[in-house]
Amino acid sequence: MNPDIKAINEKVEQESIFVEKIKAEVSKVIVGQNYMIERLLIGLLSNGHILLEGVPGLAKTLTVKTLSESIKTKFQRIQFTPDLLPADLIGTLIYNQKEGTFTTKKGPLFSNLILADEINRSPAKVQSALLEAMQERQVTIGENTFPLEDPFLVLATQNPIEQEGTYPLPEAQVDRFMLKISVGYPTKEEELEIIRRQTRGTPATVNAVISPEEIISARNVVKDVYVDEKIEKYIIDIVFATREPAEYGLNDLKDLITFGASPRASISLTLAAKAHAFLNRRGYVTPEDIRSIGMDVMRHRVVLSYEAEAEDMSTEDVIRKVLNRVEVP
Which of 96, 237, 251, 294 is buried most, with the most CB atoms less than 10 Å from its CB? Predict the structure, then answer.
């Protein structure tokens, strides 16, 4: 084994101890949902925002809140509603009549972990204010620009079943999220445990087991995780197969895709795969990391045509075909 990779492996082994501690704390409250918890940790480690989609009652909000409690950090939950204003997020200037001056009142975005609950319930102006902060990691109030604290992570939830009174996020804005996670139902055994926990005894107490400084330190190790040139080319091939499917023998997808994945997909796929390797205590990325995280990185970045709708093809179906077709190194 390459001595550099050996050194990275040792660093990863050392820095990833906290992962099990966080999982143990979160599991005091949350039953199952290991997939969602792992993806939230990937977002945290790779500095990428996450969009959680699922029907109501699947503990999306509770999982994010519990995760924030396991970190010694500031947390804000913002309930998005149709009457919300950008100033309700970023803050505003308040006039002091006595002194004749303006003072800045910062909004709830000035925190570390932001839970944007039901993001698709607020109009475009509010969504834009949030997405600008996500992209620039700074907020402008009046003439002053304020940098946001590090770590700064937005975890947004949206309900896919209600369309009335909602403002769907435009494709270009959804692209700002590193991952889009589809949250599923629990198993029978998990649901039985949920009933027992919720209807008996007192709620569990979650302890903060990691500091923001430790997260930033772990992120630096994640950046060092080794990605071989063959793996990099594999990532490029997956992304390009959504743009030029015919070149990869996917002629049947040619008329089904209107827009393929953007370069953000290539960047996010690389960063998320590094974080996935880190969670698995490895200092190098394997094709399995790419395949494991590929769906979450791509599902909101590929725009399908009307033909795909007519053929009842979902984005997941298209990405699955791409992942199965592109040659694994």
Answer: 294
Per-residue pLDDT reduced to its tens digit, 186-210 = 888 888 888 887 787 677 788 888 8
Is a pLDDT exceeding 80 seen at residue 37? yes
Give how many domains the chain has, as a whole number.
2
Same domain, 190 and 263: no
Inter-axis angle of helices 34-46 and 263-279, nearest 10: 110
User: Are 263 and 317 in a shared domain?
Assistant: yes
Query: Does 259 lie in the same domain as 172?
Result: no
Cβ atoms of residues 266 and 175 within 8 Å: no
The answer on 170 and 294 residing in a single domain is no
Buried b (16+ CB within 10 A) or exposed e, 93-128: eeeeeeeeeeeeeebbbbbbbbbbbbbbbbeeebbe
Q: Kindly state whether residue 205 falls inside one of the protein's structural domains.
A: no
Please give the sequence-ordered ranges of beta strands (E in DSSP) within the chain, or none if there are none: 50-53, 75-79, 91-96, 101-106, 113-117, 138-141, 144-147, 153-158, 179-182, 257-259, 303-304
